[in-house]
Design goal:
Structural class: alpha+beta
CATH class of the largest domain: Alpha Beta
Strand order of the largest sheet: 1-4-5-9-8-7-6
Low-confidence stretches: none
CATH superfamily of the largest domain: Bira Bifunctional Protein, Domain 2
Number of helices: 11
Bound molecules: phenylalanine
Largest sheet: 7 strands, mixed
Mean pLDDT: 91
Strand content: 15-25%
CATH topology of the largest domain: BirA Bifunctional Protein, domain 2
Number of strands: 9
CATH architecture of the largest domain: 2-Layer Sandwich
Length: 350
């Protein structure tokens, strides 16, 4: 070392020699990490040297700072190089190993996909939002009021027998239909508005191929002025054509639901035979799809709306039923049965 070298140069050089030697000696990643911490960590040897700059005379600081900085850089670079070498050596060792066969196919991670119920629901949500509907999510645990009374079904009403109910100890219930969201929506929005609320509903009944205790519906509700059966029919025709992506004939038959007046069962032309008659439509050319009707004045009142000013239509689409029709599922219990073999039949494109 030349005689003009400042006194601290010795320390810098010593630190460089020690750190670089330690790096070379570290032959696995854990050891290298230890060396890195010992040199560059908060209490590391190089860090300590960097901090020393503050103790030096002003005239020396610049030169010292540069030397310490370049020490730090040198050690950092050496560590990076060593790390790359260790990794490369590990891969080379694996490839060298006779028991390793790089031509074997790798493990294919299993790909998930959406459940057919979700897929159809998402598709319908898209159709409805494109037509200006909001998509709402309401509780599955409901009050007796929202599920029944507000919908013109008082306790004594025989219509309660149409929907066997899971009652909770609290006096609440598991909603028996998505219509339970109707008055909630009326309170939530200022009319005019249109919304759908898809979701799970529950019925306390024995199960068979076409009945499950848990299934999915999609409620549609539109509130406006001067809404008539003509609007209802026209809206349904448009919606169903959008859903089935072709012109769909619809017909209404009278249907009784206490919360609509008049109430209807809506049939669509059979999508399998096009209306000529087949086993799916029992040779009639028509398939029952959804109940609907004009919102009953009592329901509007329960929702805080004046029936002289506002009217509306509502429908309750059986989402589970639609999925079954679409994919030819013959037993509703398969949908939520949790059998992976069933859902795996619905990978993209199915
Ligand atoms: N909520 C009714 C049911 O589940 C269906 C329905 C909805 C009927 C809206 C008319 C209007 O049976």
């Amino acid at each position: 070392m030349s005689s003009e070298s400042p006194a601290w140069q010795v320390d810098i050089d010593a630190a460089a020699t020690a750190a670089l030697a330690a790096v070379t000696e570290a032959t696995d990643l854990a050891a290298l990490r230890e060396v890195e911490v010992a040199a560059l960590g908060r209490k590391g040897s190089v860090t300590a040297l960097m901090k020393r700059v503050g103790t030096l005379a002003k005239t020396e600081r610049r030169a010292y700072g540069a030397a310490a900085g370049s020490l730090r850089q040198q050690v950092t670079a050496a560590i990076e190089t060593q790390r790359d070498q260790i990794r490369a050596a590990a891969i080379a060792a694996e490839l060298d190993d006779d028991t390793f066969d790089e031509t074997l196919p790798g493990l294919n991670p299993a790909r998930g996909h959406v459940h057919p119920l979700s897929r159809v629901r998402l598709e319908l949500e898209e159709v409805f939002t494109s037509m200006g509907f909001s998509v709402l999510d309401y509780p599955e645990v409901e009050s007796e009021f929202d599920n029944f009374e507000a919908l013109n079904i008082p306790g004594w009403h025989p219509a309660r027998d149409m929907q066997d109910t899971f009652w909770l100890k609290s006096g609440h219930l598991l909603r028996t239909h998505t219509s339970a969201g109707q008055v909630r929506a009326m309170h939530q929005f200022k009319p005019p508005f249109r919304a759908i609320f898809p979701g799970k509903v529950y019925r306390y009944e024995s199960t068979d191929a076409s009945h499950d205790h848990t299934f999915h519906q999609l409620e549609g509700l539109m509130i406006g002025r001067h809404v008539s059966v003509g609007h209802l029919l026209d809206s349904m025709r448009t919606l169903l054509s959008a859903i089935f992506k072709r012109d769909v004939q619809v017909r209404l038959r009278p249907g009784y639901f206490p919360f609509v007046e008049p109430g209807f069962e809506l049939d669509i032309s059979c999508q399998v035979c096009g209306g000529d008659g087949c086993s799916v439509c029992k040779q009639s050319g028509w398939v029952e799809l959804l109940p609907c009707g004009l919102v009953h004045p009592n329901v509007l009142r329960a929702g805080g709306l004046d029936p002289d000013e506002w009217q509306g239509w509502a429908f309750g689409l059986g989402l589970s039923r639609l999925v079954m029709m679409r994919y030819g599922v013959s037993d509703i219990r398969l949908l939520l049965g949790g059998d992976a073999r069933f859902v795996e039949g619905f990978h993209a494109g199915a």
